[in-house]
Design goal:
Elements lengths: L6 E8 L12 E2 L2 H4 L7 E8 L8 H16 L8 E7 L4 E7 L6 E7 L4 H5 L28 E7 L3 E8 L6 H17 L48 E7 L1 H15 L6 H17 L6 E9 L17 E9 H6 L2 H13 L3 H13 L6 H4 L5 E5 L17 E4 L8 E6 L7 E7 L1 H7 L3 H7 L4
Parallel strand pairs: 6-7, 10-12, 12-14
Antiparallel strand pairs: 1-6, 2-5, 3-8, 3-13, 4-5, 7-8, 9-15, 10-11, 14-15
Helix pairs in contact: 2-4, 5-8, 6-8, 6-11
Amino acid sequence: METPTVKIISDCFVKPKFLSEEAKKPIYLSPWDLVMVNVNYIQKGLLFHRPENQDFSITTFLEELKDSLSATLTHFHPLAARLATVKQENPPSIVVFLNPENSPGARFIHSAVNLTVAEILTPVDVPVIVQSFFDHHKAIDHDGHEMSLLSIQVTELTDGIFIGCSINHMVVDGSSYWHFFNSWWEVFRTKAYKNGDLIPISRPPVIQRWIPEGSDPILTLPFTREDEFIDRPYAPLLRERIFHFSSASLSKLKAKVNSECNTTKISSLKALSAVVWRCVTRARRLPADQETGCRLAFNNRHRLSPPLPETYLGNSIAAVRGTATAGELLDHGVGWAAWRLHQAVVNHDDKVIREFVDSWVKNPFVYKMSRLFDANSIQMGSSPRFDMYGNEFGLGKGVAVLSGYANKFDGKVTLYEGREGGGSMDLEVCLLPENMAAFECDEEFMNVVNGLL
C-alpha cells in the first residue's frame, strides 16, 4: 500500500495590512533571543474535523485566514520580517536583528493529504507524517535570514483540516507564540477585517525588546563566521506518544505529593513532572550513581522586578533544573522528587534572572542543542496554561494539538492543556524506542494515566 504524502496546492506570502513608520525600523534582539540561534522553529498546530455544513468552502476559508492573518500581522509585524546580520571589524563580532525591509512577509501554504482524522489520532504513536503538516522542517532559527519567520500551513485531510504554525524561536517563546495564535483567532472571528480598517485587538503585543539596564541596546555576538556558532541539531529515531491525564487523576496525584511533603505548595504540573522524571529514569536503567535532571521551561516575565507584561513579544524564558542521582530519585518517593523541582522553581527569582543576563552580556554565547541536553535528563516544555483549544477558526473545537519535528530528542516532554479543560493535561513524550517500551509499561506512570492512585 502506497504511503500517503502531503501535496502542496498553493503557496504565497502575506504582509501586514497596515505598517506604521515605527514598524519599518530594525528591531534589535535581547540576550534571551540571541541564544536561540541554533534552536528549531516552534511548530504547533490544531487538528479539526471538517465542517459538515455543505456551504463550507475551502477557498473562502483560506481567503478569510489570509485576510485575518494580514490584519493580525499589523500588530505582530516582527513576524513578517526577516533576520539580518551585520559584521563588525573592531572588535570582530556580528549583530543579528529583525529587518522588515524587503521581506515578502509571512508564508501561507495550502496542502492536502489522503488521510482521515482517525488515521492521525488512532495509532498508539503520533504518525511521522504529522511532521509534514508544518513548514520549515528541520530549519534552525538562523535560517530566518532566508526563510520566513512565520509560516502557516493549512492541510486538508479527507474529513479534517489541520492548521500548522511555525515561528522562529528567536522571535517568540511559547507565551508569545500562543499570544499570536489567540490574537489571530480573535481577529478572524470578528470578521471586521473585511471592512479594510485597522482592527484593534484585546491584548496588543509589547514589541520593544527587554535589554538590561546599562547595556548597549545593540548587542553583539563574538563571532565572525557562521561555522563558529552554527550547530544543527540532529534527532535520532524516536517514538512519540501522547498520554492524557484527567483533572481527577491530577488532583489525586497533587494531593498525594503534597501529603508526602507535608505542604500544599506543589502544583499538579510539578507533581506530574516528578512522576515522568522518575519513570523515564527507571526506563533508562541508569546506574544508581548517575546524575540525572529534570528541566522545566519557565516564564521569566512575572519573576522580574518590575515584571514584564505578559504580552511582551519575544523570548523571556529560562530552564529551571532539579537534579539527583538515579539512586536518590528512585529510592525516595515521588514527593521527594517534586519537592526538589519546587525548590528549583522557588529559587528562580529576579536576582537569578538578572545574574544570567548580566553574565551573558559580558560573555555572549549561543545554545548548541548537542550540548544543551544530556541523555540522562528530561526536558519539560510548553505549558498546559496556554489557551490552545480556544482557537476555533469557525471549525468548532479542535480535536487535538500536535507538533512538528522541532526541538525533539530522547527525553523531551511537551505539556498541553487537555481538550476537556478543567485542569486536564496531555503529555507528548519523545523517547528512544527501547526507552519508550519500558516507559509505557511503567506501573507508577500508568497508574497516574489511569487515575489509580
